[in-house]
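Record type: monomer structure entry
Structure origin: computed from sequence
Chain ID: A
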Amino acid sequence: MNPPKPRITKPRLVWRWTRGKWVPRHRVTWTEAGKQRSKEITLDWKGDPKELDRLYWLAQGGKHEAQKTRERYSWRACIEAWRVDPQSAKLALSTRKQYRRVMDVIMEKNGDKDMRRTTRQAVKAALAKWSDMPRKASRYAQTISLLWNFAARELDWPMGPNPAAGLGAHRAANPYKPWPAWMIAKLGTAPESVRVAANLIRYTGQRPTAAITMRRDQIDGDWMTVVDEKGGQELEVYCPAPLRSFATGLTPRGAHFIPRNLTQPVGYDAVERAFRAWRKSLGDKALPYSLHGLRKLAIIELAEAGASDAEIQAVTGQSAPIVAYYRVKASRRRLSKAAQERRT
């Protein structure tokens, strides 16, 4: 014998005996071509009257998840089409990874929205949130522009003017600042993920993402395997003694130096958020510095140690113009120190 039907009653609310239990459904009826039609939406109330009431009023207002109309020209549809397009497969692996990260954010926040309704003002507002991270803002604008042009040219969607055109262009006129000695000295107060990431970036010379996702087996005695994200290759380089000592002192908690679990690393965004919170605690004088600045510090430290440009490039994988730019800073520091010491 079935248990008694719940006594909760509302207009358009019906109870159906399904798979051994009473299930509430929102039922709408209408007449079409002389025949009565109906449509029911299951309300997953989980036995909670308050949840049932919430779901019921959503259905009454036409706002229940099952009543939503999927947009034909949505960001999600465009991104999914781009990811399987043969032309996108020809991009460098590192470039695809960068686009994927931004596209994942877009799908999470705006996936089911009609991308044609995106305004230039909305794009500007999104970029303004990353005003202190020009490269991230630039990548976001580039990705929006890429998808917009793909939708118009490859999918033949009726798109208007590209709202991201000309926005977020990264200007190299504001290069990353190498960390000062006082900030390095404060690393002991940073969260563990930031402290580990900072040492890996500084001593491997890798880009932050590659350093943050390093596996423990990438350091093997006097040698380490680093990732050149731009070139899409792994390189074996010498591991400096400070990094060997630091890595040895870390308690293994997974396959990676900054583990999310036993087999996966923490992502760049999580570490970057922790870094920004820690940087804020240091005061305004710390605001100009980013995780990327540790790569530039690596150039200066190597130059001050007497390494040639070719040797610095072999360690950090950075271009000759970038190495030359930061070498000037190293030379200025070394010369100023020598000059000032003559005064004593």
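Annotation 1: Residues 320-341 form the longest helix (22 residues).
Annotation 2: The chain has a mean pLDDT of 87.
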